Amino acid sequence: MDTPVNSFNPYKHLKEQFVSNLTGSSMLEIIALATAVPVLILLRRCFCSNGMRDGNATKISSKKNDDVIVGVWSLRAYMAAMLLDFLLIILPLLLFFTVLSEWTSVAAVLLTLLLISLIAAKRYGASIYLEDGVDSLRSNISSYRVSIMVVTCLCILAVDFRIFPRRYAKTETYGTSLMDLGVGSFVLANSLVSRQARGFPMLKLKNALQSSSPLVVLGIARLLSTAGVDYQVHVGEYGVHWNFFFTLAAVSILSSIINIPPKYSGILGSLIVVGYQVCLINGLNVYLLSNERGTDIISQNKEGIFSIFGYWGMYLVGVQLGSYLFFGNSKQVLRSNNWAKVRVGILSLLFWLLTVILDRKVERVSRRTCNVAYVTFVLAQNLQAFISCYLAILQVLAILMLSDYIPGHKISVLEEAFNRNLLASFLLANVLTGVVNLFIETLFASSALALAVLVVYAFVLFLLVGLANFYGIKSKFW
Protein backbone atom coordinates (compact mmCIF):
# COMPACT_ATOMS: atom_id res chain seq x y z
CA MET A 1 0.00 0.00 0.00
CA ASP A 2 1.40 3.38 -1.00
CA THR A 3 1.96 6.05 1.59
CA PRO A 4 -0.64 8.81 1.30
CA VAL A 5 0.59 12.11 -0.10
CA ASN A 6 -0.53 13.98 3.04
CA SER A 7 1.07 11.45 5.36
CA PHE A 8 3.04 12.57 8.40
CA ASN A 9 5.81 10.35 7.04
CA PRO A 10 5.97 10.60 3.21
CA TYR A 11 9.27 8.70 3.04
CA LYS A 12 8.02 5.78 5.13
CA HIS A 13 8.80 3.07 2.56
CA LEU A 14 12.26 4.45 1.84
CA LYS A 15 13.05 4.44 5.56
CA GLU A 16 11.81 0.86 5.89
CA GLN A 17 13.98 -0.24 2.96
CA PHE A 18 16.94 1.59 4.54
CA VAL A 19 16.92 -0.82 7.49
CA SER A 20 16.03 -3.94 5.47
CA ASN A 21 18.14 -6.73 3.93
CA LEU A 22 21.17 -6.09 6.14
CA THR A 23 23.74 -8.77 7.01
CA GLY A 24 25.56 -7.31 10.04
CA SER A 25 29.25 -7.35 10.90
CA SER A 26 31.80 -9.72 12.42
CA MET A 27 31.71 -10.90 16.01
CA LEU A 28 35.14 -9.37 16.59
CA GLU A 29 33.89 -5.93 15.62
CA ILE A 30 30.92 -6.32 17.97
CA ILE A 31 33.33 -7.27 20.76
CA ALA A 32 35.25 -4.04 20.12
CA LEU A 33 32.05 -1.97 20.14
CA ALA A 34 30.79 -3.62 23.31
CA THR A 35 34.17 -2.99 24.91
CA ALA A 36 34.01 0.77 24.41
CA VAL A 37 30.92 1.27 26.57
CA PRO A 38 32.08 -0.07 29.96
CA VAL A 39 35.63 1.17 29.38
CA LEU A 40 34.35 4.74 28.98
CA ILE A 41 32.24 4.35 32.12
CA LEU A 42 35.27 3.21 34.12
CA LEU A 43 37.50 5.92 32.65
CA ARG A 44 34.94 8.43 33.89
CA ARG A 45 35.27 6.89 37.35
CA CYS A 46 39.05 7.01 37.17
CA PHE A 47 39.14 10.68 36.22
CA CYS A 48 36.57 11.72 38.81
CA SER A 49 36.57 8.94 41.40
CA ASN A 50 35.73 11.29 44.24
CA GLY A 51 33.11 13.31 42.40
CA MET A 52 30.11 11.73 44.09
CA ARG A 53 31.52 11.73 47.59
CA ASP A 54 30.66 15.32 48.42
CA GLY A 55 27.59 15.98 50.48
CA ASN A 56 25.55 13.73 52.65
CA ALA A 57 24.43 10.33 51.40
CA THR A 58 20.85 9.19 51.34
CA LYS A 59 19.58 5.69 50.63
CA ILE A 60 16.85 5.33 48.05
CA SER A 61 15.31 1.90 47.61
CA SER A 62 13.99 0.72 44.28
CA LYS A 63 11.63 -2.07 43.27
CA LYS A 64 14.07 -4.25 41.39
CA ASN A 65 17.40 -2.83 42.39
CA ASP A 66 19.13 -2.81 45.71
CA ASP A 67 19.64 0.43 47.62
CA VAL A 68 21.33 3.14 45.63
CA ILE A 69 23.51 5.73 47.33
CA VAL A 70 22.63 9.20 46.09
CA GLY A 71 24.71 12.24 46.97
CA VAL A 72 22.94 15.43 48.04
CA TRP A 73 24.03 18.06 45.52
CA SER A 74 23.18 21.59 44.56
CA LEU A 75 21.56 21.84 41.14
CA ARG A 76 24.58 23.67 39.79
CA ALA A 77 27.03 20.98 40.92
CA TYR A 78 24.72 18.25 39.65
CA MET A 79 24.44 19.88 36.22
CA ALA A 80 28.22 20.20 36.06
CA ALA A 81 28.61 16.48 36.82
CA MET A 82 25.98 15.64 34.18
CA LEU A 83 27.85 17.67 31.58
CA LEU A 84 31.09 15.89 32.46
CA ASP A 85 29.41 12.48 32.09
CA PHE A 86 27.99 13.53 28.75
CA LEU A 87 31.38 14.64 27.45
CA LEU A 88 33.29 11.60 28.74
CA ILE A 89 30.75 8.83 28.01
CA ILE A 90 27.87 9.78 25.70
CA LEU A 91 29.71 11.95 23.17
CA PRO A 92 32.57 9.47 22.57
CA LEU A 93 30.04 6.66 22.08
CA LEU A 94 28.18 8.70 19.47
CA LEU A 95 31.44 9.28 17.63
CA PHE A 96 32.33 5.56 17.74
CA PHE A 97 28.91 4.69 16.32
CA THR A 98 29.17 7.25 13.50
CA VAL A 99 32.17 9.21 12.19
CA LEU A 100 34.79 7.10 13.99
CA SER A 101 33.22 3.73 13.18
CA GLU A 102 36.24 2.63 11.13
CA TRP A 103 38.51 3.27 14.11
CA THR A 104 36.45 1.63 16.82
CA SER A 105 38.69 -1.42 17.22
CA VAL A 106 41.83 0.70 17.52
CA ALA A 107 40.09 3.08 19.90
CA ALA A 108 38.85 0.19 22.05
CA VAL A 109 42.38 -1.16 22.43
CA LEU A 110 43.84 2.28 23.23
CA LEU A 111 41.09 3.08 25.74
CA THR A 112 41.57 -0.30 27.41
CA LEU A 113 45.31 0.27 27.75
CA LEU A 114 44.63 3.73 29.17
CA LEU A 115 42.16 2.28 31.67
CA ILE A 116 44.58 -0.40 32.84
CA SER A 117 47.34 2.21 33.18
CA LEU A 118 45.14 4.54 35.21
CA ILE A 119 43.96 1.72 37.46
CA ALA A 120 47.54 0.63 38.08
CA ALA A 121 48.59 4.21 38.84
CA LYS A 122 45.67 4.84 41.19
CA ARG A 123 46.16 1.57 43.05
CA TYR A 124 49.86 2.28 43.44
CA GLY A 125 49.29 5.79 44.75
CA ALA A 126 46.16 5.20 46.82
CA SER A 127 46.33 4.41 50.49
CA ILE A 128 42.65 3.51 50.72
CA TYR A 129 40.54 1.77 48.12
CA LEU A 130 37.32 -0.16 48.10
CA GLU A 131 37.61 -3.81 48.86
CA ASP A 132 35.80 -6.53 47.01
CA GLY A 133 32.30 -7.08 48.36
CA VAL A 134 28.55 -6.80 48.07
CA ASP A 135 28.43 -3.09 47.22
CA SER A 136 30.95 -3.39 44.37
CA LEU A 137 29.13 -6.30 42.76
CA ARG A 138 25.78 -4.55 43.12
CA SER A 139 27.29 -1.50 41.44
CA ASN A 140 28.70 -3.62 38.61
CA ILE A 141 25.34 -5.24 37.89
CA SER A 142 23.58 -1.87 37.87
CA SER A 143 26.21 -0.36 35.57
CA TYR A 144 25.90 -3.35 33.25
CA ARG A 145 22.17 -2.76 32.85
CA VAL A 146 22.71 0.97 32.34
CA SER A 147 25.33 0.39 29.63
CA ILE A 148 22.85 -1.72 27.66
CA MET A 149 20.18 0.96 27.94
CA VAL A 150 22.52 3.80 26.92
CA VAL A 151 23.65 1.99 23.76
CA THR A 152 20.05 1.11 22.90
CA CYS A 153 18.85 4.70 23.33
CA LEU A 154 21.64 6.04 21.13
CA CYS A 155 21.23 3.46 18.37
CA ILE A 156 17.45 3.60 17.91
CA LEU A 157 17.75 7.10 16.42
CA ALA A 158 21.24 6.84 14.91
CA VAL A 159 20.14 3.91 12.74
CA ASP A 160 17.80 6.21 10.78
CA PHE A 161 20.72 8.32 9.55
CA ARG A 162 23.19 7.38 6.83
CA ILE A 163 26.04 8.34 9.15
CA PHE A 164 25.30 5.17 11.15
CA PRO A 165 27.03 2.20 9.42
CA ARG A 166 24.55 -0.31 8.00
CA ARG A 167 26.57 -3.20 9.40
CA TYR A 168 25.65 -2.04 12.93
CA ALA A 169 21.90 -2.17 12.21
CA LYS A 170 19.71 -5.22 12.81
CA THR A 171 20.23 -8.10 10.41
CA GLU A 172 17.44 -9.24 8.13
CA THR A 173 17.74 -13.01 8.55
CA TYR A 174 21.12 -14.35 9.71
CA GLY A 175 24.22 -12.65 11.04
CA THR A 176 25.40 -10.58 14.00
CA SER A 177 25.34 -6.84 14.55
CA LEU A 178 25.50 -4.33 17.39
CA MET A 179 21.76 -3.68 17.38
CA ASP A 180 20.99 -7.40 17.26
CA LEU A 181 22.25 -7.57 20.84
CA GLY A 182 19.70 -5.04 22.10
CA VAL A 183 16.57 -7.08 22.74
CA GLY A 184 18.41 -10.18 23.94
CA SER A 185 20.63 -8.16 26.28
CA PHE A 186 17.61 -6.38 27.71
CA VAL A 187 15.85 -9.68 28.45
CA LEU A 188 18.99 -11.19 29.96
CA ALA A 189 19.76 -8.11 32.07
CA ASN A 190 16.30 -8.26 33.65
CA SER A 191 16.48 -12.01 34.26
CA LEU A 192 19.81 -11.74 36.12
CA VAL A 193 18.23 -9.53 38.82
CA SER A 194 14.66 -10.84 38.66
CA ARG A 195 12.58 -11.91 41.66
CA GLN A 196 13.28 -15.53 40.80
CA ALA A 197 17.05 -15.00 40.64
CA ARG A 198 17.00 -13.24 44.03
CA GLY A 199 15.06 -16.11 45.61
CA PHE A 200 11.75 -14.30 46.16
CA PRO A 201 8.49 -16.27 45.85
CA MET A 202 6.92 -16.00 42.41
CA LEU A 203 3.92 -13.74 41.96
CA LYS A 204 0.53 -15.37 41.69
CA LEU A 205 -0.96 -15.43 38.21
CA LYS A 206 -3.35 -12.56 38.94
CA ASN A 207 -0.55 -10.40 40.31
CA ALA A 208 1.73 -11.40 37.44
CA LEU A 209 -0.91 -10.32 34.92
CA GLN A 210 -1.32 -7.02 36.75
CA SER A 211 2.45 -6.55 36.80
CA SER A 212 2.72 -7.25 33.07
CA SER A 213 -0.33 -5.18 32.08
CA PRO A 214 1.68 -1.93 31.74
CA LEU A 215 3.87 -3.64 29.14
CA VAL A 216 0.77 -4.72 27.21
CA VAL A 217 -0.59 -1.18 27.41
CA LEU A 218 2.74 0.20 26.18
CA GLY A 219 2.72 -2.30 23.32
CA ILE A 220 -0.78 -1.27 22.29
CA ALA A 221 0.11 2.41 22.64
CA ARG A 222 3.14 1.95 20.41
CA LEU A 223 1.06 0.07 17.84
CA LEU A 224 -1.65 2.76 17.75
CA SER A 225 0.78 5.67 17.73
CA THR A 226 2.93 4.29 14.90
CA ALA A 227 -0.19 3.56 12.85
CA GLY A 228 -1.68 6.96 13.67
CA VAL A 229 1.28 8.93 12.29
CA ASP A 230 2.15 6.39 9.59
CA TYR A 231 5.52 5.78 11.26
CA GLN A 232 7.97 3.42 9.56
CA VAL A 233 7.95 -0.14 10.94
CA HIS A 234 10.17 -2.92 9.63
CA VAL A 235 7.62 -5.75 9.50
CA GLY A 236 10.31 -8.43 9.28
CA GLU A 237 11.53 -7.58 12.79
CA TYR A 238 8.51 -8.66 14.87
CA GLY A 239 5.54 -8.74 12.49
CA VAL A 240 2.73 -6.43 11.49
CA HIS A 241 1.30 -5.72 14.94
CA TRP A 242 3.86 -7.15 17.36
CA ASN A 243 6.58 -5.14 19.10
CA PHE A 244 9.24 -5.31 21.82
CA PHE A 245 6.81 -4.60 24.68
CA PHE A 246 4.56 -7.54 23.78
CA THR A 247 7.60 -9.83 23.85
CA LEU A 248 8.59 -8.61 27.32
CA ALA A 249 5.02 -9.05 28.58
CA ALA A 250 4.77 -12.57 27.14
CA VAL A 251 8.07 -13.64 28.73
CA SER A 252 6.99 -12.21 32.09
CA ILE A 253 3.60 -13.96 32.01
CA LEU A 254 5.00 -17.32 30.90
CA SER A 255 7.64 -17.21 33.63
CA SER A 256 4.92 -16.63 36.21
CA ILE A 257 2.56 -19.31 34.92
CA ILE A 258 5.28 -21.97 35.00
CA ASN A 259 6.74 -21.47 38.46
CA ILE A 260 10.03 -23.28 38.81
CA PRO A 261 12.85 -22.83 41.35
CA PRO A 262 15.92 -20.92 40.08
CA LYS A 263 18.20 -23.95 40.37
CA TYR A 264 16.05 -25.77 37.78
CA SER A 265 15.04 -22.82 35.58
CA GLY A 266 18.20 -23.07 33.47
CA ILE A 267 17.45 -26.71 32.66
CA LEU A 268 13.90 -25.85 31.59
CA GLY A 269 15.15 -22.85 29.61
CA SER A 270 17.70 -24.98 27.79
CA LEU A 271 15.07 -27.60 26.94
CA ILE A 272 12.76 -24.91 25.57
CA VAL A 273 15.50 -23.37 23.42
CA VAL A 274 16.71 -26.76 22.12
CA GLY A 275 13.15 -27.91 21.38
CA TYR A 276 12.46 -24.65 19.57
CA GLN A 277 15.68 -25.07 17.56
CA VAL A 278 14.64 -28.57 16.50
CA CYS A 279 11.42 -27.08 15.14
CA LEU A 280 13.38 -24.35 13.35
CA ILE A 281 15.73 -26.67 11.49
CA ASN A 282 12.81 -28.90 10.52
CA GLY A 283 11.08 -26.18 8.54
CA LEU A 284 9.90 -23.53 10.98
CA ASN A 285 12.82 -21.23 10.05
CA VAL A 286 11.73 -21.25 6.39
CA TYR A 287 8.24 -20.17 7.45
CA LEU A 288 9.49 -17.45 9.82
CA LEU A 289 12.05 -15.98 7.41
CA SER A 290 9.68 -15.96 4.46
CA ASN A 291 8.12 -12.66 3.42
CA GLU A 292 4.80 -14.38 2.72
CA ARG A 293 2.06 -13.78 5.30
CA GLY A 294 -1.48 -15.00 5.66
CA THR A 295 -4.43 -13.02 6.97
CA ASP A 296 -4.59 -14.68 10.41
CA ILE A 297 -3.06 -12.99 13.46
CA ILE A 298 -0.35 -15.63 13.93
CA SER A 299 0.89 -15.41 10.34
CA GLN A 300 0.81 -11.61 10.48
CA ASN A 301 3.03 -11.64 13.57
CA LYS A 302 4.90 -14.92 13.16
CA GLU A 303 8.37 -13.56 14.04
CA GLY A 304 7.25 -11.95 17.28
CA ILE A 305 5.05 -14.82 18.42
CA PHE A 306 7.41 -17.72 17.74
CA SER A 307 10.56 -15.91 18.93
CA ILE A 308 8.93 -15.77 22.38
CA PHE A 309 10.13 -19.34 22.93
CA GLY A 310 13.74 -18.30 22.36
CA TYR A 311 13.50 -15.24 24.60
CA TRP A 312 11.65 -17.16 27.30
CA GLY A 313 14.29 -19.87 27.29
CA MET A 314 17.00 -17.20 27.46
CA TYR A 315 15.21 -15.55 30.39
CA LEU A 316 15.01 -18.80 32.34
CA VAL A 317 18.70 -19.51 31.76
CA GLY A 318 19.45 -15.97 32.93
CA VAL A 319 17.45 -16.53 36.12
CA GLN A 320 19.59 -19.51 37.08
CA LEU A 321 22.77 -17.66 36.12
CA GLY A 322 21.77 -14.69 38.26
CA SER A 323 21.06 -16.95 41.23
CA TYR A 324 24.20 -19.02 40.66
CA LEU A 325 26.63 -16.19 39.99
CA PHE A 326 25.48 -13.28 42.09
CA PHE A 327 22.96 -14.22 44.76
CA GLY A 328 23.30 -16.52 47.73
CA ASN A 329 20.62 -18.62 49.34
CA SER A 330 19.40 -15.67 51.39
CA LYS A 331 17.13 -13.10 49.78
CA GLN A 332 18.89 -10.08 48.29
CA VAL A 333 22.30 -11.24 49.50
CA LEU A 334 24.93 -10.96 46.81
CA ARG A 335 27.77 -13.41 46.61
CA SER A 336 31.45 -12.48 46.70
CA ASN A 337 32.70 -10.63 43.64
CA ASN A 338 35.78 -12.88 43.39
CA TRP A 339 33.51 -15.93 43.49
CA ALA A 340 31.48 -14.52 40.62
CA LYS A 341 34.53 -13.76 38.47
CA VAL A 342 35.71 -17.37 38.41
CA ARG A 343 32.28 -18.78 37.57
CA VAL A 344 31.58 -16.15 34.91
CA GLY A 345 34.94 -16.95 33.32
CA ILE A 346 34.13 -20.62 32.88
CA LEU A 347 30.59 -19.96 31.64
CA SER A 348 31.71 -17.23 29.27
CA LEU A 349 34.22 -19.48 27.53
CA LEU A 350 31.61 -22.21 27.32
CA PHE A 351 29.01 -19.93 25.73
CA TRP A 352 31.49 -18.57 23.20
CA LEU A 353 32.48 -22.10 22.25
CA LEU A 354 28.84 -23.11 21.91
CA THR A 355 28.09 -20.05 19.78
CA VAL A 356 30.87 -20.81 17.30
CA ILE A 357 29.87 -24.48 17.04
CA LEU A 358 26.15 -23.78 16.70
CA ASP A 359 26.69 -20.98 14.20
CA ARG A 360 28.79 -23.21 11.96
CA LYS A 361 27.24 -26.65 12.44
CA VAL A 362 23.56 -26.15 13.34
CA GLU A 363 22.20 -22.79 12.18
CA ARG A 364 23.69 -19.33 11.87
CA VAL A 365 22.88 -16.72 14.50
CA SER A 366 19.45 -15.19 13.86
CA ARG A 367 17.95 -12.47 16.03
CA ARG A 368 14.78 -12.56 13.95
CA THR A 369 13.94 -16.11 15.04
CA CYS A 370 15.87 -15.98 18.33
CA ASN A 371 17.42 -19.36 17.64
CA VAL A 372 19.77 -21.24 19.95
CA ALA A 373 22.91 -19.69 18.39
CA TYR A 374 21.49 -16.21 19.07
CA VAL A 375 20.73 -17.15 22.69
CA THR A 376 24.29 -18.37 23.32
CA PHE A 377 25.68 -15.36 21.44
CA VAL A 378 23.85 -12.96 23.78
CA LEU A 379 24.91 -14.94 26.84
CA ALA A 380 28.55 -15.05 25.74
CA GLN A 381 28.67 -11.36 24.84
CA ASN A 382 27.08 -10.22 28.09
CA LEU A 383 28.86 -12.57 30.47
CA GLN A 384 32.44 -12.23 29.35
CA ALA A 385 34.58 -12.88 32.39
CA PHE A 386 37.08 -10.91 34.41
CA ILE A 387 39.83 -13.37 33.52
CA SER A 388 39.37 -12.43 29.86
CA CYS A 389 40.52 -8.92 30.68
CA TYR A 390 44.05 -10.21 30.67
CA LEU A 391 43.47 -11.62 27.18
CA ALA A 392 42.21 -8.22 25.91
CA ILE A 393 38.73 -9.66 25.28
CA LEU A 394 37.08 -7.15 27.60
CA GLN A 395 33.30 -7.25 27.76
CA VAL A 396 30.53 -5.57 29.67
CA LEU A 397 30.44 -7.37 33.01
CA ALA A 398 34.11 -8.24 32.78
CA ILE A 399 35.28 -4.68 32.35
CA LEU A 400 32.92 -3.34 34.97
CA MET A 401 34.41 -5.78 37.47
CA LEU A 402 37.64 -3.81 37.08
CA SER A 403 35.92 -1.08 39.11
CA ASP A 404 37.03 -3.00 42.24
CA TYR A 405 40.52 -1.67 41.55
CA ILE A 406 39.51 2.00 41.22
CA PRO A 407 39.86 3.96 44.47
CA GLY A 408 36.94 6.17 45.43
CA HIS A 409 33.21 6.07 44.78
CA LYS A 410 31.88 3.78 42.12
CA ILE A 411 28.95 5.48 40.41
CA SER A 412 28.48 8.43 38.06
CA VAL A 413 25.44 10.65 37.61
CA LEU A 414 24.69 8.96 34.29
CA GLU A 415 24.65 5.48 35.83
CA GLU A 416 22.61 6.58 38.82
CA ALA A 417 20.02 8.42 36.70
CA PHE A 418 19.44 5.71 34.09
CA ASN A 419 19.49 2.92 36.67
CA ARG A 420 16.69 4.60 38.58
CA ASN A 421 14.39 4.88 35.54
CA LEU A 422 15.50 2.23 33.04
CA LEU A 423 12.26 1.57 31.20
CA ALA A 424 11.13 5.19 31.46
CA SER A 425 14.41 6.21 29.82
CA PHE A 426 13.75 3.79 26.98
CA LEU A 427 10.21 5.14 26.52
CA LEU A 428 11.46 8.71 26.47
CA ALA A 429 14.11 7.76 23.89
CA ASN A 430 11.39 6.23 21.71
CA VAL A 431 9.26 9.37 21.92
CA LEU A 432 12.20 11.64 21.07
CA THR A 433 13.18 9.33 18.20
CA GLY A 434 9.66 9.53 16.79
CA VAL A 435 9.61 13.32 17.05
CA VAL A 436 12.95 13.62 15.23
CA ASN A 437 11.79 11.31 12.44
CA LEU A 438 8.55 13.22 11.95
CA PHE A 439 10.24 16.62 11.66
CA ILE A 440 13.56 15.74 10.01
CA GLU A 441 14.09 13.73 6.84
CA THR A 442 16.82 11.57 8.31
CA LEU A 443 17.59 9.80 5.03
CA PHE A 444 18.65 13.02 3.35
CA ALA A 445 20.47 14.65 6.26
CA SER A 446 24.14 15.46 5.74
CA SER A 447 26.73 13.91 8.04
CA ALA A 448 27.20 17.21 9.86
CA LEU A 449 23.47 17.69 10.41
CA ALA A 450 23.00 14.05 11.44
CA LEU A 451 25.76 14.26 14.03
CA ALA A 452 24.41 17.56 15.35
CA VAL A 453 20.89 16.12 15.70
CA LEU A 454 22.21 13.02 17.47
CA VAL A 455 24.24 15.11 19.92
CA VAL A 456 21.25 17.32 20.73
CA TYR A 457 18.97 14.27 21.06
CA ALA A 458 21.39 12.52 23.39
CA PHE A 459 21.90 15.66 25.48
CA VAL A 460 18.15 16.29 25.84
CA LEU A 461 17.53 12.64 26.75
CA PHE A 462 20.30 12.58 29.33
CA LEU A 463 19.26 15.98 30.71
CA LEU A 464 15.65 14.91 31.26
CA VAL A 465 16.61 11.55 32.78
CA GLY A 466 19.18 13.26 35.00
CA LEU A 467 16.78 15.94 36.22
CA ALA A 468 14.17 13.28 37.01
CA ASN A 469 16.75 11.57 39.18
CA PHE A 470 17.81 14.84 40.84
CA TYR A 471 14.23 15.65 41.84
CA GLY A 472 13.55 12.12 43.06
CA ILE A 473 11.17 11.06 40.28
CA LYS A 474 11.00 7.30 39.77
CA SER A 475 8.76 5.33 37.45
CA LYS A 476 6.73 2.67 39.26
CA PHE A 477 4.97 0.95 36.37
CA TRP A 478 7.42 -1.89 35.81
Automatic annotation (TrEMBL):
UniProt KW Transmembrane keyword: yes
Any single GO CC term annotated in Swiss-Prot or TrEMBL for this entry: membrane
Transmembrane segments: 27-47, 68-97, 103-121, 142-164, 240-260, 267-288, 308-327, 339-358, 383-402, 422-440, 446-471
Domain of life, source organism: Eukaryota
Membrane topology: Multi-pass membrane protein
Keywords: Membrane, Transmembrane, Transmembrane helix
Coiled coil: none
GO BP term, pick one: protein localization to plasma membrane
Signal peptide (UniProt feature, chain positions): none
Molecular function as annotated in GO: glucosaminyl-phosphatidylinositol O-acyltransferase activity
Subcellular location(s) per record: Membrane
Keyword Membrane: yes
Name of the protein in question: GPI-anchored wall transfer protein
